[in-house]
Design goal:
Blueprint (H helix, E strand, L loop, with lengths): L2 H16 L11 E5 L8 H10 L1 E5 L5 H4 L1 H24 L7 H15 L2 H10 L15
Parallel strand pairs: 1-2
Length: 141
Amino acid sequence: MMTILFDKWISHIIPFVQTHKGNIFTMNHHLLILNGHNSHVAINIVHKTRGLGLNLIILSSHTSHALQLLDIMCFKLVKISFKIHKDVWTLINKGKGVGKEDLAQWVSLAFKKTLILTNIYKGFKAIAIWSLNSIAMEGKM
């Protein structure tokens, strides 16, 4: 990731969020949690997002493995679900080559099955960002 690409991504995502439920404005803030990569901490990006009601939290170095919600809960479940769909397909279609359509279907089914609010809430509870779980990080660092 480069700062210029991240800046373009931020510029792209802000209008999308502003036009959907939970509009971001200076009085209705949203939080974006990022790792400490150089491209995420450029001062122009911080000023741009702060002025629009999007607050950035930069995770401390060497903590993202324990604090990244998507990796800990959501993508882990997506990978498991994807593998199940692939294995079932393979058993039914022995000897048949896998096409792009098959891969897309497995990913779609995995996302629909696993990226649900219940799993996202469980992810927040599993990490230290969940403010009501002060011991969530014990033994993870």
